[in-house]
Amino acid sequence: MKTVRVAVVGAGVVGFSTAICIAEALPICSVTLLAEKFSPDTTSDVAAGMVLAEVFPDIPLERQRRWFKNGFDHLLDIAQSEHAPEAGVMLSSGCQIFKEVPAEMKPFWSDTVIGFRNMTDRELKRFPNHKFGQAFTTLKCECSTYLPWLEKRFRKAGGRVEQRKVNSLHELSNNFDIIVNCTGVGSRTLVGDNQVHPIRGQVLKMEAPWLKHFIRDGDGMSYIYPGIHSVTVGGTRQVGDSRLQADEGDSKSILERCSKLEPSLRRAKVLHEPVGLRPGRRSPRVEKELVELKGRQVPVVHNYGHGGWGVSFAWGTALDALGLVRQCLHEMPLQAKL
């Protein structure tokens, strides 16, 4: 059988995870990852990288649970290995607090994270505006370290990397047999998906080495995530906003809100103020279709639209995308394989 040429478009955490899964599992495939921007210039680089999740309305809960567990286990294996410092993956303990008791007191991922429990009254005392909280240990992924590590792993598996802007799938139809689309917000123009839209996220990277435990407000608007080199303090969720410049008003609001949760932040130094555009979508798109490109039917696998949960679900949806690529191989006409 001849080599099957696979293009993966997109170099964020979803793109590289998907490219690795295909390259490592399917030696028959020659995998090329194409993207206009690579780390440190991707949305993933701005991500806080905490492994948490919210429910997607159109995806069966069992599938979301599998995505989350596969992603968690993958990152936990790295965090507990010698590769942890090079990959930028670490265990992180802390709490999620709520102003009102949530309808769902035990989220679907509570059995996957480590040591999940409700907070005691004594623990909640420091948050007078919050009535309920959950304490647990999860994982944090420093994407500016993790992405170059993934690229190295992908190249080791025989993958090729090409820096170029893909304006249309037609550009790829002559050189590739299967196309995998992991372009996030870029899918709006690349495949004409109007359901995907930018959600602007601005954070502060702060120097506060005394902070060791994360705090996340259950509304998702305020969070403090200590990392390896700095503390990520956020954030914003501005739907339809594509500005990539830091906004002074947003920085002030973030600091004000988060200092109420952690007063010592008032003494911390702001190192920089990154901005990224999350690929907002009602639910991620992980499916395949046949697209007519230059007169022939080309299988296209989609894996995008993870919103703010790309790091949490990347490996899980990458494994699903791998399964879809396997299906494409089985369905390819015999002459294409000879």
Automatic annotation (TrEMBL):
GO cellular component: peroxisomal matrix
Residues at which D-dopa binds: 223, 278, 308
Enzyme class: oxidoreductase
The FAD dependent oxidoreductase domain, residue ranges: 5-318
GO terms of molecular function: D-aspartate oxidase activity; FAD binding
Compartments (UniProt record): Peroxisome matrix
Record keywords: FAD, Flavoprotein, Oxidoreductase, Peroxisome
Cofactor: FAD
Record-listed FAD binding positions: 43-44, 166, 183
Family: Belongs to the DAMOX/DASOX family.
Name this protein carries in UniProt: D-aspartate oxidase
Species of origin: Amphiprion percula (Orange clownfish)
Origin organism lineage: Eukaryota, Metazoa, Chordata, Craniata, Vertebrata
